[in-house]
Design a protein that fits this description.
This is Transcription attenuation protein MtrB. The chain is mostly beta strands. It has no helices and seven strands. The structure holds tryptophan.
Length: about 80
């Protein structure tokens, strides 16, 4: 099988946008912490993201519900 770019960790989050214009930012792993990816979601859209060798953190702006192994998290107003 071909090598998978970015080296997945098997750790995923599922984000459901509860309003238009939600932003998801992927932040780089390692000493340097910077955005390497931005994704825009509209209401009702679902985004499934995996933490990888490249991505150690995610920042989410807007009203969402996040499903992950730690539970279900809703952002506040
Ligand atoms: N580049 C940092 C790292 O890999 C990104 C990061 C992860 C971070 N968790 C954090 C930065 C918590 C500040 C606080 O560790």
């Amino acid at each position: 099988m071909d090598e998978i770019l970015g080296g997945g960790t098997g750790e995923y989050i599922v984000v459901r946008a509860e309003e238009d214009g939600v932003s998801i930012f992927g932040l780089t792993r390692g000493r340097d912490t910077r955005f390497h990816h931005t994704e825009k979601l509209d209401k009702g859209e679902i985004y499934i993201a995996e933490f990888t060798e490249m991505t150690s953190a995610m920042k989410i702006k807007g009203k969402v519900t996040v499903f992950c192994r730690h539970g279900v998290v809703k952002s506040s107003e």
